[in-house]
Design goal:
This protein is mainly α and 365 residues long. The chain is 68% helix and 0% strand.
Length: 365
Amino acid sequence: MSVRSRPAALTALILLGTLVARPAAAHVDYVTDDTGDPIDAVRFTLDVLTEPINAAVFAGSGLAAVAGLAVYLWVRPTITDVVVLREKLAGYADLVPWMLRLAIGLPLVGAGFQGYLFAPTLAFDTGASPFLRVLFIGLGFFTLFGLATRLVAMVGLLTYAWVLLAVAPGAVIAMEYVPVLVALAILGGGRPSADDMLLAVASTPGSYYGRIDPVHHLKSSLDAFVGPLRRYVPTVLRVGMGVTFVYLGLIEKLADPGRALLVVEKYDLTSVVPVDPGLWVVGAGVTEIAVGLALIAGFFTRGAAALSFVLFTTTLFGLPDDPVLAHVALFGMASAVFTLGSGPLSFDRLVGRPALDNETVLAAD
Protein backbone atom coordinates (compact mmCIF):
# COMPACT_ATOMS: atom_id res chain seq x y z
CA MET A 1 0.00 0.00 0.00
CA SER A 2 1.40 3.40 -0.97
CA VAL A 3 1.81 6.26 1.46
CA ARG A 4 -0.70 8.33 -0.51
CA SER A 5 -3.40 5.63 -0.34
CA ARG A 6 -3.38 5.41 3.45
CA PRO A 7 -4.79 8.92 3.98
CA ALA A 8 -7.39 8.12 1.33
CA ALA A 9 -8.50 5.01 3.19
CA LEU A 10 -8.62 6.88 6.49
CA THR A 11 -10.60 9.69 4.88
CA ALA A 12 -13.10 7.18 3.51
CA LEU A 13 -13.65 5.68 6.94
CA ILE A 14 -14.04 9.09 8.58
CA LEU A 15 -16.54 10.25 5.99
CA LEU A 16 -18.53 7.06 6.32
CA GLY A 17 -18.72 7.66 10.05
CA THR A 18 -20.26 11.08 9.44
CA LEU A 19 -23.53 9.60 8.21
CA VAL A 20 -23.88 7.19 11.08
CA ALA A 21 -22.70 9.43 13.90
CA ARG A 22 -26.28 9.93 15.02
CA PRO A 23 -27.21 7.12 17.46
CA ALA A 24 -30.25 5.09 16.42
CA ALA A 25 -33.24 4.71 18.71
CA ALA A 26 -33.39 0.91 18.35
CA HIS A 27 -36.75 -0.69 19.19
CA VAL A 28 -39.06 2.27 19.77
CA ASP A 29 -41.78 -0.01 21.17
CA TYR A 30 -39.46 -1.11 23.99
CA VAL A 31 -38.95 2.35 25.47
CA THR A 32 -42.30 4.11 25.05
CA ASP A 33 -45.90 3.09 25.71
CA ASP A 34 -47.46 6.15 24.10
CA THR A 35 -48.25 6.03 20.39
CA GLY A 36 -47.68 9.78 20.01
CA ASP A 37 -49.68 12.15 17.89
CA PRO A 38 -50.82 10.79 14.51
CA ILE A 39 -48.46 12.20 11.88
CA ASP A 40 -48.45 11.74 8.14
CA ALA A 41 -45.12 9.98 7.66
CA VAL A 42 -44.48 11.15 4.09
CA ARG A 43 -45.40 14.74 4.84
CA PHE A 44 -43.29 14.70 8.01
CA THR A 45 -40.20 13.45 6.15
CA LEU A 46 -40.65 16.00 3.36
CA ASP A 47 -41.09 18.84 5.87
CA VAL A 48 -37.95 17.83 7.74
CA LEU A 49 -35.78 17.47 4.65
CA THR A 50 -36.99 20.65 2.95
CA GLU A 51 -35.96 22.80 5.90
CA PRO A 52 -32.68 24.39 4.68
CA ILE A 53 -30.45 23.58 7.66
CA ASN A 54 -31.77 20.01 7.92
CA ALA A 55 -31.35 19.52 4.18
CA ALA A 56 -27.75 20.77 4.32
CA VAL A 57 -26.82 18.49 7.23
CA PHE A 58 -28.59 15.45 5.75
CA ALA A 59 -27.31 15.91 2.20
CA GLY A 60 -23.82 16.76 3.38
CA SER A 61 -23.61 13.62 5.51
CA GLY A 62 -24.93 11.44 2.72
CA LEU A 63 -22.62 12.86 0.07
CA ALA A 64 -19.62 12.58 2.40
CA ALA A 65 -20.39 8.90 3.06
CA VAL A 66 -20.88 8.12 -0.63
CA ALA A 67 -17.70 9.99 -1.57
CA GLY A 68 -15.73 8.15 1.10
CA LEU A 69 -16.92 4.76 -0.10
CA ALA A 70 -16.21 5.70 -3.72
CA VAL A 71 -12.66 6.75 -2.86
CA TYR A 72 -12.07 3.50 -0.96
CA LEU A 73 -13.39 1.35 -3.82
CA TRP A 74 -11.27 3.31 -6.31
CA VAL A 75 -8.04 3.08 -4.29
CA ARG A 76 -8.71 -0.41 -2.86
CA PRO A 77 -5.84 -0.18 -0.37
CA THR A 78 -4.38 -3.33 1.12
CA ILE A 79 -4.32 -2.62 4.84
CA THR A 80 -2.13 -5.06 6.73
CA ASP A 81 -4.26 -4.76 9.87
CA VAL A 82 -7.38 -5.83 7.98
CA VAL A 83 -5.62 -8.81 6.40
CA VAL A 84 -4.38 -10.01 9.79
CA LEU A 85 -7.85 -9.51 11.26
CA ARG A 86 -9.44 -11.65 8.55
CA GLU A 87 -6.92 -14.40 9.12
CA LYS A 88 -7.62 -14.38 12.86
CA LEU A 89 -11.38 -14.36 12.38
CA ALA A 90 -11.12 -17.43 10.15
CA GLY A 91 -9.96 -19.33 13.23
CA TYR A 92 -13.11 -18.38 15.11
CA ALA A 93 -15.59 -19.71 12.55
CA ASP A 94 -16.12 -23.00 14.38
CA LEU A 95 -17.17 -21.05 17.49
CA VAL A 96 -20.06 -19.30 15.71
CA PRO A 97 -22.67 -21.88 16.85
CA TRP A 98 -21.60 -21.20 20.43
CA MET A 99 -21.99 -17.44 19.87
CA LEU A 100 -25.47 -17.95 18.42
CA ARG A 101 -26.54 -20.29 21.22
CA LEU A 102 -25.60 -17.71 23.83
CA ALA A 103 -27.27 -14.97 21.79
CA ILE A 104 -30.73 -16.54 21.89
CA GLY A 105 -30.44 -18.92 24.83
CA LEU A 106 -30.20 -16.14 27.41
CA PRO A 107 -33.12 -14.10 25.99
CA LEU A 108 -35.32 -17.21 25.77
CA VAL A 109 -34.67 -18.04 29.43
CA GLY A 110 -35.42 -14.41 30.29
CA ALA A 111 -38.63 -14.52 28.26
CA GLY A 112 -39.79 -17.60 30.16
CA PHE A 113 -39.05 -16.23 33.61
CA GLN A 114 -40.35 -12.72 32.91
CA GLY A 115 -43.36 -13.93 30.90
CA TYR A 116 -43.19 -12.61 27.35
CA LEU A 117 -43.32 -14.07 23.84
CA PHE A 118 -39.92 -13.33 22.28
CA ALA A 119 -40.39 -9.55 22.61
CA PRO A 120 -40.81 -7.75 25.99
CA THR A 121 -43.88 -5.97 24.60
CA LEU A 122 -45.73 -9.30 24.24
CA ALA A 123 -46.31 -10.25 27.87
CA PHE A 124 -48.32 -13.24 29.03
CA ASP A 125 -49.57 -14.32 32.44
CA THR A 126 -47.06 -16.87 33.75
CA GLY A 127 -49.61 -18.16 36.24
CA ALA A 128 -52.30 -18.72 33.62
CA SER A 129 -49.88 -20.06 31.02
CA PRO A 130 -47.37 -22.29 32.82
CA PHE A 131 -46.79 -24.29 29.61
CA LEU A 132 -45.49 -21.22 27.78
CA ARG A 133 -43.19 -20.41 30.66
CA VAL A 134 -41.76 -23.93 30.72
CA LEU A 135 -41.50 -23.96 26.92
CA PHE A 136 -39.42 -20.79 26.71
CA ILE A 137 -37.24 -21.67 29.70
CA GLY A 138 -36.69 -25.14 28.26
CA LEU A 139 -35.83 -23.81 24.81
CA GLY A 140 -33.40 -21.37 26.40
CA PHE A 141 -31.57 -23.84 28.62
CA PHE A 142 -31.37 -26.56 25.95
CA THR A 143 -29.96 -23.96 23.55
CA LEU A 144 -27.43 -22.67 26.10
CA PHE A 145 -26.20 -26.19 26.86
CA GLY A 146 -26.21 -27.16 23.20
CA LEU A 147 -28.30 -30.26 23.85
CA ALA A 148 -30.31 -31.58 20.88
CA THR A 149 -29.50 -28.25 19.25
CA ARG A 150 -30.94 -28.89 15.79
CA LEU A 151 -34.20 -30.27 17.20
CA VAL A 152 -34.51 -27.38 19.67
CA ALA A 153 -33.88 -24.88 16.87
CA MET A 154 -36.69 -26.40 14.81
CA VAL A 155 -39.04 -26.28 17.80
CA GLY A 156 -38.03 -22.66 18.33
CA LEU A 157 -38.82 -21.80 14.71
CA LEU A 158 -42.22 -23.49 14.94
CA THR A 159 -42.94 -21.65 18.21
CA TYR A 160 -42.04 -18.31 16.66
CA ALA A 161 -44.23 -19.04 13.62
CA TRP A 162 -47.14 -19.97 15.89
CA VAL A 163 -46.76 -16.80 17.98
CA LEU A 164 -46.43 -14.58 14.89
CA LEU A 165 -49.30 -16.09 12.88
CA ALA A 166 -51.79 -17.13 15.56
CA VAL A 167 -51.13 -15.23 18.77
CA ALA A 168 -49.32 -11.92 18.38
CA PRO A 169 -48.37 -10.48 14.97
CA GLY A 170 -46.31 -7.96 16.92
CA ALA A 171 -43.70 -10.70 17.33
CA VAL A 172 -42.34 -9.46 14.01
CA ILE A 173 -40.36 -6.98 16.12
CA ALA A 174 -38.26 -9.95 17.31
CA MET A 175 -37.59 -11.32 13.83
CA GLU A 176 -33.87 -11.61 14.62
CA TYR A 177 -34.62 -14.99 16.23
CA VAL A 178 -35.43 -16.50 12.82
CA PRO A 179 -32.02 -16.31 11.09
CA VAL A 180 -30.25 -17.39 14.28
CA LEU A 181 -32.51 -20.42 14.70
CA VAL A 182 -32.15 -21.31 11.01
CA ALA A 183 -28.37 -21.12 11.35
CA LEU A 184 -28.41 -23.37 14.42
CA ALA A 185 -30.69 -25.86 12.66
CA ILE A 186 -28.03 -26.11 9.95
CA LEU A 187 -24.86 -25.96 12.05
CA GLY A 188 -25.91 -27.82 15.18
CA GLY A 189 -24.43 -27.09 18.58
CA GLY A 190 -20.82 -26.84 17.53
CA ARG A 191 -18.32 -26.67 20.36
CA PRO A 192 -18.35 -26.36 23.28
CA SER A 193 -21.73 -28.05 23.62
CA ALA A 194 -23.44 -31.01 25.26
CA ASP A 195 -24.01 -32.47 21.80
CA ASP A 196 -20.28 -32.41 21.08
CA MET A 197 -19.42 -34.07 24.40
CA LEU A 198 -22.12 -36.72 24.15
CA LEU A 199 -21.11 -37.51 20.58
CA ALA A 200 -17.52 -38.12 21.72
CA VAL A 201 -18.73 -40.49 24.43
CA ALA A 202 -21.28 -42.28 22.24
CA SER A 203 -18.76 -42.76 19.43
CA THR A 204 -16.12 -44.38 21.65
CA PRO A 205 -15.92 -48.19 21.24
CA GLY A 206 -17.09 -49.97 24.37
CA SER A 207 -19.01 -46.93 25.64
CA TYR A 208 -21.97 -47.84 27.84
CA TYR A 209 -23.69 -44.58 26.95
CA GLY A 210 -23.27 -45.33 23.26
CA ARG A 211 -25.39 -48.48 23.67
CA ILE A 212 -28.43 -46.54 24.90
CA ASP A 213 -28.12 -43.39 22.81
CA PRO A 214 -28.83 -43.98 19.11
CA VAL A 215 -29.49 -40.30 18.47
CA HIS A 216 -25.88 -39.12 18.26
CA HIS A 217 -25.05 -41.95 15.89
CA LEU A 218 -27.36 -40.22 13.39
CA LYS A 219 -25.16 -37.13 13.34
CA SER A 220 -23.25 -38.23 10.27
CA SER A 221 -26.51 -38.63 8.35
CA LEU A 222 -27.73 -35.21 9.50
CA ASP A 223 -24.41 -33.60 8.62
CA ALA A 224 -24.58 -35.10 5.14
CA PHE A 225 -28.12 -33.77 4.71
CA VAL A 226 -27.39 -30.19 5.80
CA GLY A 227 -23.78 -30.14 4.61
CA PRO A 228 -24.49 -28.30 1.32
CA LEU A 229 -26.34 -25.60 3.27
CA ARG A 230 -23.53 -24.77 5.71
CA ARG A 231 -21.77 -22.43 3.29
CA TYR A 232 -24.91 -20.27 3.17
CA VAL A 233 -25.05 -19.67 6.94
CA PRO A 234 -23.15 -16.34 6.63
CA THR A 235 -25.69 -15.27 4.00
CA VAL A 236 -28.65 -16.27 6.18
CA LEU A 237 -27.31 -14.31 9.15
CA ARG A 238 -26.28 -11.30 7.07
CA VAL A 239 -29.61 -11.01 5.24
CA GLY A 240 -31.62 -11.68 8.41
CA MET A 241 -29.79 -8.94 10.25
CA GLY A 242 -30.20 -6.59 7.30
CA VAL A 243 -33.95 -7.16 7.12
CA THR A 244 -34.17 -6.45 10.86
CA PHE A 245 -32.38 -3.13 10.41
CA VAL A 246 -34.58 -2.13 7.48
CA TYR A 247 -37.66 -2.91 9.57
CA LEU A 248 -36.38 -0.84 12.50
CA GLY A 249 -35.59 2.13 10.28
CA LEU A 250 -38.58 2.03 7.96
CA ILE A 251 -41.46 0.78 10.12
CA GLU A 252 -40.47 1.99 13.60
CA LYS A 253 -38.92 5.32 12.62
CA LEU A 254 -39.95 6.72 9.24
CA ALA A 255 -43.44 5.18 9.16
CA ASP A 256 -44.20 6.09 12.78
CA PRO A 257 -42.50 9.46 13.40
CA GLY A 258 -44.89 10.41 16.22
CA ARG A 259 -43.65 7.67 18.51
CA ALA A 260 -40.05 8.15 17.42
CA LEU A 261 -40.30 11.85 18.33
CA LEU A 262 -41.42 10.80 21.81
CA VAL A 263 -38.18 8.85 22.22
CA VAL A 264 -36.14 11.89 21.15
CA GLU A 265 -38.03 14.04 23.65
CA LYS A 266 -37.95 11.47 26.47
CA TYR A 267 -34.18 11.11 26.40
CA ASP A 268 -33.44 14.71 25.37
CA LEU A 269 -31.40 13.47 22.42
CA THR A 270 -31.18 16.94 20.91
CA SER A 271 -28.86 17.89 23.78
CA VAL A 272 -26.49 15.13 22.65
CA VAL A 273 -26.45 16.24 19.02
CA PRO A 274 -28.07 19.69 18.66
CA VAL A 275 -30.19 19.15 15.57
CA ASP A 276 -33.90 19.37 14.87
CA PRO A 277 -35.88 16.50 16.53
CA GLY A 278 -37.35 15.64 13.15
CA LEU A 279 -33.86 15.27 11.71
CA TRP A 280 -33.03 12.89 14.55
CA VAL A 281 -35.94 10.65 13.55
CA VAL A 282 -35.28 10.80 9.80
CA GLY A 283 -31.52 10.45 10.28
CA ALA A 284 -31.87 7.42 12.56
CA GLY A 285 -34.36 5.79 10.19
CA VAL A 286 -32.31 6.36 7.07
CA THR A 287 -29.10 5.24 8.82
CA GLU A 288 -30.67 1.96 9.93
CA ILE A 289 -32.12 1.37 6.47
CA ALA A 290 -28.73 2.08 4.87
CA VAL A 291 -26.96 -0.34 7.23
CA GLY A 292 -29.66 -2.93 6.60
CA LEU A 293 -29.43 -2.65 2.82
CA ALA A 294 -25.63 -2.89 3.02
CA LEU A 295 -25.95 -6.11 4.99
CA ILE A 296 -28.58 -7.55 2.64
CA ALA A 297 -26.38 -6.78 -0.36
CA GLY A 298 -23.23 -7.95 1.41
CA PHE A 299 -21.61 -4.55 0.88
CA PHE A 300 -18.73 -3.83 3.31
CA THR A 301 -20.25 -6.58 5.42
CA ARG A 302 -17.81 -6.65 8.30
CA GLY A 303 -17.81 -2.86 8.46
CA ALA A 304 -21.62 -2.80 8.58
CA ALA A 305 -21.62 -5.49 11.29
CA ALA A 306 -19.09 -3.54 13.35
CA LEU A 307 -21.13 -0.38 12.89
CA SER A 308 -24.32 -2.13 13.99
CA PHE A 309 -22.53 -3.36 17.10
CA VAL A 310 -21.57 0.24 17.91
CA LEU A 311 -25.16 1.38 17.34
CA PHE A 312 -26.53 -1.28 19.70
CA THR A 313 -23.99 -0.37 22.36
CA THR A 314 -24.61 3.38 22.21
CA THR A 315 -28.35 2.74 22.25
CA LEU A 316 -28.17 0.66 25.43
CA PHE A 317 -26.03 3.27 27.18
CA GLY A 318 -28.11 6.16 25.84
CA LEU A 319 -31.52 4.63 26.63
CA PRO A 320 -31.16 3.30 30.18
CA ASP A 321 -34.58 1.60 30.33
CA ASP A 322 -34.18 -0.22 27.02
CA PRO A 323 -34.37 -3.95 27.94
CA VAL A 324 -30.91 -5.44 27.53
CA LEU A 325 -32.11 -9.01 26.97
CA ALA A 326 -34.16 -7.85 23.99
CA HIS A 327 -30.94 -6.92 22.17
CA VAL A 328 -28.70 -9.86 23.07
CA ALA A 329 -29.76 -11.77 19.94
CA LEU A 330 -28.81 -8.79 17.77
CA PHE A 331 -25.43 -8.50 19.50
CA GLY A 332 -24.78 -12.18 18.89
CA MET A 333 -25.86 -12.01 15.27
CA ALA A 334 -23.65 -8.97 14.66
CA SER A 335 -20.71 -10.82 16.22
CA ALA A 336 -21.33 -13.85 14.00
CA VAL A 337 -21.60 -11.74 10.84
CA PHE A 338 -18.41 -9.90 11.76
CA THR A 339 -16.66 -13.24 12.26
CA LEU A 340 -17.91 -14.95 9.10
CA GLY A 341 -18.01 -12.04 6.68
CA SER A 342 -20.36 -11.79 3.74
CA GLY A 343 -20.54 -15.37 2.52
CA PRO A 344 -21.84 -16.22 -0.97
CA LEU A 345 -24.31 -14.11 -2.96
CA SER A 346 -22.77 -10.82 -1.87
CA PHE A 347 -21.32 -7.65 -3.36
CA ASP A 348 -18.14 -8.16 -1.34
CA ARG A 349 -17.65 -11.57 -2.92
CA LEU A 350 -18.32 -10.15 -6.38
CA VAL A 351 -15.77 -7.32 -6.31
CA GLY A 352 -13.54 -8.09 -3.35
CA ARG A 353 -10.00 -9.35 -3.36
CA PRO A 354 -9.54 -13.08 -2.59
CA ALA A 355 -9.59 -13.57 1.17
CA LEU A 356 -9.80 -16.39 3.67
CA ASP A 357 -13.10 -18.12 3.19
CA ASN A 358 -14.87 -18.74 6.49
CA GLU A 359 -17.70 -20.57 4.78
CA THR A 360 -15.11 -23.20 3.81
CA VAL A 361 -14.23 -23.54 7.49
CA LEU A 362 -17.91 -23.98 8.30
CA ALA A 363 -18.40 -26.55 5.58
CA ALA A 364 -15.45 -28.58 6.81
CA ASP A 365 -16.38 -28.33 10.50
